[in-house]
């Protein structure tokens, strides 16, 4: 077999570099080894590696992994077609997972198995070579187009979600303003996208604005736009989100976070159906369908005087309340399978589904963080899983007792909950401390301390 692919190893441990200097040339066309990440930029230019095997920590007495994440970002910015495999200790697996979310191809735990190391580097090399062959640069054919539709809504069969679905089917073809409320993580943005997709405006991209993330000083500029010279950093004209959404849908997320004095400016634009850029005097007509979302009680805010009553009625023609995930248990497993498919493809993992034990664990959990918590849990489990099915031990969730009364559980102290969770994990894994620590997402030393504390 012809060796192919160029591998760059960045690790400050001379023993590791010496071992890899012997091992890797047997499988790859070219191998370069660096003791310091400070030489990465030069190597990217001169050696142009297909894959970088990157240690997570370099400074003595430092094991935060932040250096690895920093250099991962640097590599991806300067040479996005190069794949990065993170080299990490077992205790730093959580950081490696974060690294994969930021664009790393995979991670290898020290001490490593030669077969797994070679297979991972070869897979990363094949992907890099294939992408380069397609002209894999930013903005290439493989990128999602701006107006490309996202995934459609996954509807549950419960009474509450069935009622929401029927309402959506009725209002989607109209231009009625919609206010979506519900706890954080319930999928308000996905529901907004579904309403837009089903509307006559669905051929154009929906314009999304996180109103709570815009600073007060930039609010008018981001929403309404500005002209060159309107303020110090206004070097060019800027088209605001409202003008960008002309003929389409504007989704204002976290509208309850907009300060009171800025609510008046937003209301004026909605009433006049025209927008004036900052620094300009011309009024630009706009035709938008408005969908807003919040996890706050706007009616209570109106009573308290922190949200304008006239704006509330302007955005609240149709009100949709999304129930929390704990009230939509029929959706938990289908959503989990959807996320498994998504992340198995993204992280090239062979995971295809859930075991019966995993399903029971997912259904028993309360999911206080709703769909977002479930999604993050599945993503992490897919990354860390060893088999083709996710099992109960792949989730860092407390073991719930079917039928357990919520008031009794709520009355427990944090220490009591922690002790019960550890004891349940010890029972589940037959006292195997490695599996227990992994399932609880803590290190073995931390587990030892907890076992001693609770006399387990």
From TrEMBL:
- Keyword Cell wall biogenesis/degradation applies: no
The residue ranges of the Sigma-54 factor interaction domain are 154-383
Keywords for this protein: ATP-binding, Nucleotide-binding, Phosphoprotein, Transcription, Transcription regulation
Looking at the record, which segments are called Disordered? 129-152
Kindly list the positions at which 4-aspartylphosphate occurs in this protein: 55
Which CDD domains does this UniProt record tie to the protein? AAA, REC
- Quote the InterPro entries the UniProt record gives: AAA+_ATPase, AAA_lid_NorR, CheY-like_superfamily, Homeodomain-like_sf, HTH_Fis, P-loop_NTPase, Sig_transdc_resp-reg_receiver, Sigma_54_int
- Domain Response regulatory: residue ranges: 6-125
Q: Which Pfam families match?
A: AAA_lid_14, HTH_8, Response_reg, Sigma54_activat
Protein name (record): Sigma-54 dependent transcriptional regulator
Q: Which organism is it from?
A: Parabacteroides absconsus
């Amino acid at each position: 077999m012809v060796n192919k692919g160029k591998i760059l190893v960045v690790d400050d441990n001379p023993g590791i570099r010496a071992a890899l200097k012997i091992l890797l040339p047997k499988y790859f066309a070219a191998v370069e080894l660096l003791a310091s990440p400070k030489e990465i930029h030069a190597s990217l230019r001169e050696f142009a590696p297909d894959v970088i095997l990157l240690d997570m920590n370099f400074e003595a007495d430092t094991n935060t992994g932040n250096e690895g994440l920093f250099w991962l970002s640097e590599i991806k910015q300067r040479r996005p077609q190069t794949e990065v495999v993170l080299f990490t200790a077992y205790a730093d697996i959580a950081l490696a997972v974060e690294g994969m979310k930021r664009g790393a191809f995979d991670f290898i735990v020290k001490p490593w198995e030669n077969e797994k190391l070679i297979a991972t580097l070869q897979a990363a090399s094949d992907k890099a070579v294939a992408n380069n062959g397609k002209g894999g640069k930013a903005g290439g054919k493989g990128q999602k187009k701006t107006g490309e539709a996202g995934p459609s809504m996954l509807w549950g069969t419960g009474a509450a979600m069935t009622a929401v679905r029927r309402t959506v089917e009725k209002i989607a073809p109209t231009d009625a303003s919609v206010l979506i409320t519900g706890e954080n993580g319930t999928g308000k943005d996905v529901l907004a996208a579904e309403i837009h997709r089903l509307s006559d405006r669905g051929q154009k991209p929906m314009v999304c604005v996180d109103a709570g993330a815009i600073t007060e000083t930039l609010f008018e500029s981001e929403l309404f736009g500005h002209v060159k010279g309107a303020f110090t950093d206004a070097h060019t004209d800027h088209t605001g989100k409202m003008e960008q959404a002309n003929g389409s849908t504007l989704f204002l997320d976290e509208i309850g976070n907009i300060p009171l004095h800025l609510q008046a400016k937003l209301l004026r634009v909605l009433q006049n159906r025209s927008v004036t850029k900052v620094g300009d005097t011309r009024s630009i007509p706009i035709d938008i369908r408005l969908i807003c979302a919040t996890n706050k009680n706007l009616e209570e805010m109106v009573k308290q005087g922190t949200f304008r009553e006239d704006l509330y009625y302007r955005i609240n023609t149709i009100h949709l309340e999304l129930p929390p995930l704990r009230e939509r248990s029929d959706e938990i497993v289908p959503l989990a399978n959807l996320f498994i498919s998504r992340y198995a493809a993204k992280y090239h993992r062979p995971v295809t589904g859930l075991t019966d034990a995993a399903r029971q664990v997912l259904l028993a959990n309360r999911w206080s963080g709703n769909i977002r918590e479930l999604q993050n849990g599945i993503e992490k489990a897919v990354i860390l899983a060893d088999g083709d099915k996710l099992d109960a031990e792949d989730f860092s969730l407390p073991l719930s007792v079917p039928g357990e009364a919520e008031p009794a559980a709520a009355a427990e102290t944090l220490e009591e909950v922690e002790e019960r969770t550890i004891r349940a994990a010890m029972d589940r894994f037959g006292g195997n401390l490695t599996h227990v620590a992994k399932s609880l997402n803590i290190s073995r030393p931390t587990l030892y301390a907890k076992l001693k504390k609770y006399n387990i």
